[in-house]
């Protein structure tokens, strides 16, 4: 609390000398002084030469202190020497307390037996100096207001600062409608730049998928069929109602997974297990369509007949008739599987209703160039895709239009038997062709 100055004129009687009981006062000094009032002793101002003789009244101790060369000195007086013990006096009357009241220009103090004293307010201090002008503020402007986002820029050039404010609110939570959306009072990130229905769909790697039986799954490892989640087969989905996923091993111990299907039409005694996708095992004299790896993943590889039967050009190449025997020819197929003979292709066509409609029954429903009147059923899960072929000069042809499969049956030194499906036909065709052409391979389980 700062000291509050009051000015007044009072007669302060200083007793310079005391004598024994009954002696008279020998010296009296009348002093005109200015009195400051502070609440606590520690709030007294600094006592220095310029204020010697000034008086301060300290409220919490009810004492007056004078500023002297020895510092602030209480005018209470030092304690005198102890006198002879006197007789006990009579109990005095209860004292009466002083009172204060606010009056114009100060405070009036009234004590019993004394005239009231008015302590006046101090004079108004001089006005302080004006402060320095502050720096100019930075102006802000709305530079964009669209898609629920207000963009504010403060300042210009390299020192400019930009803030985005979002108008959209989800429940009580604000959100960024440029990258998020609100569903059922919950904020979701957009999937890429798409909004979806989280009650029916989910987002994975910026692609929207349907929930599977109400559940989220990992599309990089799993797929959904009839509301049930299955593991992918070699990275591919399949039809669990018709097909299975089978791990196979080749002669060099390479392991791969293939979709397989057991074809056993009702009313026949035919029951054979085929691969439900083309072979994709790399050997010499095998290629991807257009020499692109992604086509091997989609269609499998294209093999010369020599590569398909697992022989060398010296043994069975162009102009070299070779004897493969009467049994199964494993060829390029994995252990426990073999390259079908011409007769085994014929047996398949007969089992699915005949060669005239075998194409429609065994071709995949998708991937083929549409042709009027042709409805590919894929009735047994064989799923033949239009992989095209490679001619003996290294050219690629017929992707989307046809697929050609080798058999293990040779037709002289330069040709071998195979079969094909074509987009414009329901039927299957048994053909013989140049050994150096590149055809697809389907393996048949032993």
Overview of the molecule:
The protein has 446 residues and is mainly beta. It has three domains: 4-76 and 102-118, no CATH class; 162-231, no CATH class; 243-445, no CATH class. The protein contains five helices and 31 strands. The protein has helices spanning 293-299, 305-308, 313-316, 342-351, 355-362; strands at residues 4-7, 34-38, 55-58, 63-68, 71-74, 99-103, 106-110, 117-120, 140-146, 149-154, 161-166, 169-170, 173-174, 180-183, 186-189, 201-204, 207-210, 222-225, 228-231, 243-249, 255-263, 272-275, 286-287, 302-303, 337-338, 389-390, 396-397, 402-411, 415-422, 428-434, 444-445. It has a five-stranded mixed β-sheet with strand order 1-2-3-4-5, with no helix packed on it. α4 (342-351) packs across α5. The longest helix has 10 residues, at 342-351. Mean pLDDT is 86; it is low at 1-33.
